[in-house]
Amino acid sequence: MIPIETALGRLGTRCFLNFRPQSREVRHGALGRYFDAVADLRIGLAVDGQRRVLPLCRAGEVFESVDMELTMTSVTFRCESRPLKVGLDVTFRAPFYPRDVQTSTAPVFYIDLTVHALAPPGRPRPGFAGPVEVFLGLERPDTSIVERSRGLDLAYTIRIEPRQQISWFDPDDPGKPSKRDWQITQVRCAERIEASGGEVRVKDKEIRWRVDLSAHSQTVLAAWVARVEDPVFERRGRVHRFLATRHHDSLDALGTWAFEQREMLVSKSRFFDAVFDGSSLSPTQRNLIAFTFQSYLINTWWVEDEAGNDWFSVWEGVCRFHSTIDVEYNLALLYFALWPELLKKTFAEWAEYEKPGPSDRDGRRTGFLSHDMGACLSADGQDYPHEMEVEENTNFILLLHAYWRWTGREEVPARHAELLQRLIRYVTASDTTGNGFPDRGVANTIDDASPAVQYAREQTYLAVKALCAARAAADLARLLRDDTLAAECEAFAERTLRTLDRDAWLGDHYAVCIDQSDADVLDVWTGKPLPTGPLEGWDAYSIYTANGLLLPLMAGLETGLDLDRIRLDLRAALERARTEYGCTHSSADRANLWISQNLWRDFVAAYLGLDFLSEADRYWAFEVRSNCTTPGHCFIDTHGWNSLEYYPRGITSIGVFLAAVGLQVDAASRRIRLAPVRVPIRLPLLPFVDWDKRVVPWVEYIPEDGRIACCIDGRGTLRGWDIDAGDVHLVESALGS
User: Which residue has the higher pLDDT, 700 or 716?
Assistant: First the structure.
């Protein structure tokens, strides 16, 4: 593929490399994006005094041909210079392995540089009059770079300005961000780039290897490590350091460990890559997942305070809010697929940011969750300027229910039982008319959309999500032996269903909202009433109707929704709202589209038997177009006037591994159901991979003699599960092998 802007990041440790070939530079820093610097990363080779470089520095002649390859853990530049008769492959690798904290958080990058001679087929390899030399060097502003015998030591200080400690501020009050005394005012960073093996010399801030091409090619190796001693994060008066610092007490110790463990870390990363690359997904889908995975990682924070209490959260890209619930609602597909314990941590953290709601009609307490837990380098409470009460409560409830169904861990909903009561009662009390459609606290996450989509009363989007959350809460209530709550939730869901079928259905799709009036509807951004008249676009085709349905479908929860109507709605919205790069919010709301919400819609469709998965070609085309030119900015979720860049939510794309085979999991009853949306297909069942033993269960559906055959290669990881593979010829010989 053509080189595009992308990044490599570490889980929770922030250290990142942001490759920007379109601008011939690298953004780099141990605190990640927004605390980074533009650097020149000089990588290339010299033949007979002539040099070629990768397009990652602003000086020097670039290789005549440069291509890029992506995996889940690596970025490779494949470069050739025909005039010099030589090529150079450079692979940057960021080790990652599910549920392996030390491997995934260590601030380590590995660099492999392979030089090879170019020759036409059947011709002898060229000889070189002089030596061939590979070089790796760095120039970074305000950085001390000291040459060592086998590498470079970097030292710099990141100074934290008050304005960098708050994501959202009033432009009319520029002093607002500085009204608090922040404990973290500067962060000292140390890094090392060091060669591994081979003959090396260091000169002019470059590591240089002399290579021998008598065997056609040679590979030289380097490691890049970083350490941040200082606190980097504040929460309620306590400072936190990166969790990764607990494993090594110095940069020297980290560097030694990185070299000693290189084979093991690279082996784990390659195995992880192979699980994804071995599927039948298209190259477009695999590239999209790998690209968005790294944009997710560069937003993660994993820190601990002086008492050893750890904290995990995810920045919302350019917005820099910590673990925005509506964003994590989409990111959760990653947790369900690879690392559910991270979601469990976040449940406990969100619970600490509950806000009191009004009492319900029976005088019982209600509550709602904050949109986020803070911003930038702190988590001291919501930074976003307005609430999304119904939105965030329903997101939390749906996530909690799906987590229980997929993991079987009853202690998690039990821990949050009282919170569950308050959240769902806020949702049901938000319906003040008794028709099951919330009309209070209804501003939602679609914050660049038209008023009808974003904050109209009685939105169909939120009504369906509230209905699904009520069914989920009822299921959880039965688990917790709370029959009263279960009955309340079921009654609310039935009211919503009746209104949905009676008032929202327009023949081939559901209305955006059923209250068409803008009377007393306030613009949540200005606090002022809307202009008089009916809400424009109230009857449009929207991609959000079934947004609340995906997690119930994954968990096998019956919602009572008319699924035939949902299918018609999905098809109609795809046809009416589609553009070159995906569907806009609605057919009447054409200012913006969100890639992540298109993906989410596609996965709902897949669970309902509709194959929209090829729409990923449109999303990848947009990312390539945006990142092969300036400004780029890695995964960009929005096309239109808004710009959600360096954004984590693209990893929603990993949901194709679940949705394409219709994977439903109920750990409580040990049942798995599969219903592929297309055949042939071959995918790993990611939630059931035994990463410790490197055993992967694969499911494959193929046409065979006029029927569909299904082979499930379980190798023991699925032993004890009741598997419903659908009305197919099941090849069972591999089960339990």
Answer: 700
